[in-house]
């Protein structure tokens, strides 16, 4: 080709790809041709197809995909294996805008080598090949039929790659057959409407388009019954009850729910818990006293909830008769007395011998003494007293007394001024006055709610005794009687309760932000850890964190702004949990408006819960309440502010979490001087002189 004198580059076109060429340039002058310069160069190959892959395998097909190369294309040629003539292939031309293709009519479970190349106006590119394999027709694996109830079973299986669906079939003993076709995304199905106590044959097979795979079979039997038949409540006390029921075959668990009946709403909150399938008894604890409860037990079969059964019970009222004792006795009478109890409307006094019929007498609440007459000489009587609260009766207190013989003119004096002078976590210390003529004293004790009775005899010189190795937070009945030789005088009964385990002191919520608070407390000596719980005041779900003994603070996040939360902590001593301490905290941030409350002098009763008003927000009140099992109700005296105070988050001011940034540094931009060399298109060369 001829070029002008001022031209220093030229493009040579219509060359063949991947071909060596010799190019020569001559300088032409007006009267002659100058020297020549020659170079040898090779054109580049045509771009190949990239990312050639198998997208989806089928039993008799393979779906292929690829990324087309840049440039003008006439189309693609793909080599497709012939399934009926091994070793031979045929090719198929596809349009240039195609990026996927399905090869069908292949054989099951067979490998195929497939090649593709792009077709340009200049000719075809180099081929790209891969090996694909069709799927094998296999049965369903891990087929389980379980969690049978009286009329349902649950079928589960592992999904099969390439399956377009599943056919599930079940047959009853009488030959009735039902089936259902399920999509490829199913791996679980509940079969319903079955007969009670019947054995069923359940089969499943995968479906691949129009082809059905092998069948997998299992047998299962429905239950005769899926409900609890017997639900009992026993050992009901002021704060606990034992619930028991019969075991249900096939049950994976139980769900027990309980709460006050409508008449007693507000006394306690509804609660529920899940129990494992081997459990047939559970003790309800920390229920409210003198409250009627309804409880319901549901049977669980996996995720299926079976029928429920309900029962009701009522807890005993708080309070029991104290200082119940025999003051004197004869051969035909026994005199008893006791101390008054707050809230009692009357007293029920009962007595009987081991083989006699019990007799009862109701006494007005103002009566604190009674003489039981017409008794048999030299007979042991069990005397019981309990306080009556309206229609309910409190727990009983009992003692035994032997009436004197008819010829017995001398009476053993009862021990006087029996007192509990010291109470510990695991001990009581008693004191009494010496009794004339006594050769010793017998001290016996038994847990208030029943258990093993223990006793100890001390000398006549003793006026104190310490009972040790008692359980913490437990009430005991203690009897002290004088002993004269082989004879024993009437016992004086006192009751006492051991102290609670040490509680956590100084429990408070500090450094509260929009969504978090820091809980602080004073460490308790000898603990093995702490159990920290919190929940929104109107939500039953509780979150719990177990902490080590070295903790004395903990930060809780993800809290809701403006909401009040209940935070509780209790010390843990090995397997035993100590008393609970509680704080209520409303979640408001540091930057909320400060509201001035007019000070009003108020008198707070002794031992009232300590109330602290935080200065940073007038609407946050940290109330620390240490709960124990002592049955004493205290009412704090709180004076309200003289003006109504409304606290709300300032509008239009987004909450900002404080973060310090040293400096705003602009991103560094680096300018690179890059020399770009343009590659010649296939079939062309650029010449620079």
Automatic annotation (TrEMBL):
Superkingdom assignment: Eukaryota
Compositional bias annotation for Low complexity: 665-681
Position of the signal peptide: none
One of the Pfam families matching this protein, by short name: fn3
Gene3D superfamilies reported in the protein's UniProt record: Immunoglobulins (2.60.40.10)
Listed SUPFAM superfamilies: Fibronectin type III (SSF49265)
Keyword Repeat: yes
PROSITE patterns: FN3 (PS50853)
Stretch list, region Disordered: 643-689
Listed InterPro entries: ECM_Regulatory_Proteins (IPR050991), FN3_dom (IPR003961), FN3_sf (IPR036116), Ig-like_fold (IPR013783)
Keywords, sorted A to Z: Repeat
Sequence ranges assigned to domain Fibronectin type-III in this UniProt record: 1-47, 48-140, 227-319, 320-407, 414-502, 503-591
Name by which UniProt lists this protein: Fibronectin type-III domain-containing protein
Source species taxonomy: Eukaryota, Metazoa, Chordata, Craniata, Vertebrata
């Amino acid at each position: 080709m001829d070029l002008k004198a001022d031209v220093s580059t030229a493009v040579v076109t219509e060359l063949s790809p991947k071909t060596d060429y010799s190019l020569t340039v001559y300088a032409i002058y007006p009267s002659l041709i100058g020297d020549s310069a020659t170079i040898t160069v090779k054109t580049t190959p045509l771009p190949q197809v990239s990312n050639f892959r198998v997208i989806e395998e089928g039993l008799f097909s393979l779906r292929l995909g690829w990324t087309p190369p840049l440039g003008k294309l006439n189309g693609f040629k793909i080599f497709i294996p012939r399934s009926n003539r091994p070793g031979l292939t045929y090719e198929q031309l596809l349009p240039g805008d195609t990026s996927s293709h399905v090869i069908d009519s292949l054989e099951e479970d067979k490998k195929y080598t497939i090649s593709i190349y792009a077709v340009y106006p200049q000719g075809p590119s180099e081929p790209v090949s891969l090996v694909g394999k069709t799927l094998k027709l296999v049965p369903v694996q891990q087929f389980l039929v379980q969690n049978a109830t009286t009329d349902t079973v649950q079928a589960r299986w592992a999904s099969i790659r390439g399956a377009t669906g599943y056919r599930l079939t079940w047959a009853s003993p009488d030959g009735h057959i039902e089936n259902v076709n399920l999509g490829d995304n199913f791996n679980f199905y509940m079969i319903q409407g079955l007969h009670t106590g019947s054995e069923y044959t359940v089969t499943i097979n995968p479906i691949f388009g129009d082809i059905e795979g092998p069948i997998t079979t299992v047998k299962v039997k429905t239950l005769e019954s899926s409900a609890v038949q017997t639900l009992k409540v026993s050992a009901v006390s002021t704060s606990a009850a034992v619930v028991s029921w019969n075991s249900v075959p096939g049950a994976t668990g139980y769900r027990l729910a309980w709460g006050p009946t409508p008449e007693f709403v507000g006394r306690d909150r509804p609660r529920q818990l899940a129990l494992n399938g081997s459990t047939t008894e559970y003790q309800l604890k920390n229920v409210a006293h003198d409250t009627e409860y309804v409880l319901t037990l549901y049977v669980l079969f996996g995720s299926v909830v079976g029928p429920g059964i309900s029962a009701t019970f009522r807890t005993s009222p708080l309070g029991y008769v104290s200082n119940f004792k025999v003051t004197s006795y004869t051969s035909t009478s026994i005199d008893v007395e006791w101390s008054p109890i707050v809230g009692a409307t009357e007293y029920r006094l009962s007595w009987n011998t081991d083989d006699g019929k019990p007799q009862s007498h109701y006494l007005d609440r103002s009566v604190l003494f009674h003489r039981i007459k017409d008794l048999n000489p030299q007979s042991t009587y069990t005397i019981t007293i309990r306080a009556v609260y309206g229609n309910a009766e409190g727990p009983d207190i009992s003692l035994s007394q032997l009436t004197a013989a008819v010829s017995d003119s001398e009476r053993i004096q009862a021990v006087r001024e029996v007192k509990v002078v010291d109470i510990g976590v695991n001990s009581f210390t008693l004191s009494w006055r010496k009794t004339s003529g006594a050769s010793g004293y017998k001290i016996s004790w038994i847990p208030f709610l029943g258990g093993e009775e223990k006793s100890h005899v001390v000398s006549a010189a003793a006026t104190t005794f310490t009972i040790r190795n008692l359980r913490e937070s437990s009430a005991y009945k203690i009897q002290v009687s004088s002993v004269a030789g082989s004879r024993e005088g009437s016992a004086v009964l006192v009751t006492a309760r051991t102290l609670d385990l040490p509680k956590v002191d100084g429990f408070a919520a500090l450094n509260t932000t929009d969504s978090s608070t820091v809980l602080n407390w004073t460490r308790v000596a000898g603990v093995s850890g702490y159990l920290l719980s919190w929940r929104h005041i109107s939500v039953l779900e509780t979150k719990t964190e177990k902490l080590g003994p070295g903790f004395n603070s903990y930060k809780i996040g993800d809290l809701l702004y403006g909401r009040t939360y209940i935070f509780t902590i209790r010390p843990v001593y090995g397997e035993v949990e100590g008393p609970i301490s509680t704080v209520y905290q409303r979640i408001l941030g540091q930057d909320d408006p400060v509201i001035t409350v007019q000070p009003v002098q108020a008198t707070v009763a002794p031992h009232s819960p300590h109330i602290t008003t935080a200065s940073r927000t007038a609407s946050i009140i940290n109330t620390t309440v240490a709960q124990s099992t002592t049955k004493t109700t205290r009412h704090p005296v709180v004076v309200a502010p003289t003006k109504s105070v409304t606290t709300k988050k300032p509008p239009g001011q987004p909450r900002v979490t404080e973060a310090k940034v040293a400096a705003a540094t602009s991103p560094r931009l680096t300018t690179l001087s890059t020399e770009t060399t343009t590659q010649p298109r296939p079939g062309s060369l650029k010449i620079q002189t």
